[in-house]
Each structure stands twice: as C-alpha cells, then as structure tokens.
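QA checklist item 7 of 12: single-chain prediction sanity check.
[x] sequence parsed
[x] length recorded as 186
[x] structure emitted
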Amino acid sequence: MNTMATTYRWSDPDVRASDIASLARTPILIREIYVGRSPAWLDSRHNPDTFSPREVLGHLCVCETDNWIPRVRLTLESRQESPFQPFDVLGGNQMSYDLRVEDLVQQFADLRRDSLGELDRLKITDADLGKTAIHPKFGSVTLDQLLTTWVAHDLYHLGQIFKSFSAPLQPHIGPWQEFLNLPQFN
C-alpha cells in the first residue's frame, strides 16, 4: 500500500520541512557527485534521448531562473488563473557546455539558495496552496502541485544522473547484470 500518496500534503508542516530540506540538499549532492568526474562520466547517457549529467545540471540552473519561483510568484500574485510562460526544457543545454562543471555546480548552488530564500520570504499559507494558474500543457494547476513537482523534479533528475553514470558500466559487469537490472533503464 502506498501510504505516501494518501498522507503527503505540502500543508503538513513536517512534509513542508522535509521538502524544503530535500530542495536544499540537491546542490550539496550535485557538488559531491559532479566535482572531479571525468567528461566520460559527465557526458554519459543511460538512453540516447535523455540528458547527460552535464545537461541535467544546465537544465536545473535554468529551472531555478525561469521556472519554479517565477511560477510560484505568478500563482500567488494572480487574482485569476494566470498562464505560465512556456518553459524551454532544453534551455540549459548550451550553458552546460559553455561553463566549467565546477562553475555550473556553484551557479546552481547559488541559484537554489536564492530560490529557497525567496520561497521563505513568500510566507506561503495553507490557503495559498489551493491557488491556481494555467500550465501551457496541463491547464489549471495548484500551487501545491507546483511545489510538490519541484521536489519530485529534483529527485527524478538525481536518479537520471546515477542511471547515466551506471549505464556505461553495464557491458563490463558480467553476471552481476542480473542483479543490477541495468538493461531495464528507461
């Protein structure tokens, strides 16, 4: 039974604190898993149509500037459902290759710190969580859904990074492949 689905609410102070802690940890994890990695690791892909770890990092930076907090603000400030600006998912790809990975890691940490500071200053109330805006693809979405997606988005991309790091190892692990289930990556 999936109890998380029935008990998870951003309005719960414990959930909110855990989610914010998770968002605050992402830059720490990124620093630990990126710095010192070779280009072969940073440019690996677990699937040809996915971001490389380097591209994930650029994507996370662009999300901080163009996605999360701007959409939170829009949802909070609107008296009616306002439309979100479309978000360029691939917007960070060029930045991923223009900057040294260490600089990109620091940029993400700085942007996330600023985002979390802004989130704190916004003093979101339980009533605010039900406010809505219009997503270009999904239609009406709540602030609660947006904030929850921010956390899930980080976790998804952290998993994607580790899958990409693991994929090139798959041909070399011999019989242990059965236990690691690497060919099942999607």
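[x] summary fact logged: Residues 10-184 form a domain with the Four Helix Bundle (Hemerythrin (Met), subunit A) fold (CATH 1.20.120.450).
[ ] second reviewer sign-off
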